[in-house]
Structure prediction request, 370 residues.
Amino acid sequence: MIKFLDLQKINLVRQEEIEQRLLDTFRSGWYLQGKELRTFESALAAYIGVDHAIGVASGLDALRLILRGYIELGVIHEGDEIIVPANTYIASILAITDNRLKPVLVEPESATYNIDFEKIEMAVSARTKAIMVVHLYGRCAWSEKLVQLADKYDLKIIEDSAQAIGACWCNRRTGGLGDAAGFSFYPGKNLGALGDGGAVLTNDLQLKEIVSSLANYGASEKYIHRFKGINSRLSELQATVLNVKLKYLDEENAQRREIAHRYSAGIENTSILLPEEPADSLEHVWHLFVIRSAARYKLQDHLRDHHIQTLIHYPVPPHKQEAYQEWNDLHLPLSEQIHQQVLSLPISPVMTTEETEKVIAAVNSFRAVQ
Prediction:
């Protein structure tokens, strides 16, 4: 079986270095808010090209804390609106509603699956305070038009960079394009920990200080609590792993791009819709290689019969989830069609050329109608 993502194999490539560093951390006796975290925050900020990085417990917490930070700063108020793509993972939406803010869903572009920049202005109201762009599947979602809109209406731009670490726009990395960004280090991400983890990145010193405090029980110093905070800290053990893996991220993203290029060049099945390759390959880090088929489940069964594991990202859009029953009657046709048709092929830095070619051959042999 060609696994969708062989995490064991991915991590074993760095086994010796990771194990030695973990042993050092274990022996240090310091497991929270220590040297490894400071080293990682510094290295991550430098890699992205921003002034500040704050390690937190998850990508969802990173987005939640950014919005909460802006609320504490008085930039955003309860009930304000945040524009967000309709075609995204539910975490983007949860971060907004957790802060008692109102998500305003905007349809994606059909070619990129990212938010349609041409539709954003129609969604702006007097209560709009920010645009949350999601670099979905690893593709950078950015444009001059987006920046102009934010300037015109005095809106913050928050990047959900959970899937796109290392992607670039005009030689600037995602996470360093907007006012603040949230990252996820869930094990399956391009930069994955050995458990949950996340980070907030920003050039805004005030926001950095408030987020740091909010994530540590709202404390400004030990036992002195300025805010009603939460416990959301990236552990020394996870920071240790990420310190090792960050050094190899660009190399591994390049391997993903090579596999994606092979897929794009080799898959010739006219019943399959392939993802668009951006003109500048650095705009995409191919966290996922997502194809579309009107016969998705039949295709998935066909690939399983050929010993190829696939996943669906994601079968149900946020506005059709039971958690958001108040939106269930909302009709967003493109988002709904995308969620009904997408299928993610295996892609990772440890996939071999032989495995890639096997996937291509199996996809090409599929017949939607026998």
Notes: DSSP finds 13 helices and 13 strands in the chain. The chain has two domains: 7-246, 249-364. The radius of gyration is 21 Å. The longest helix spans residues 249-266.
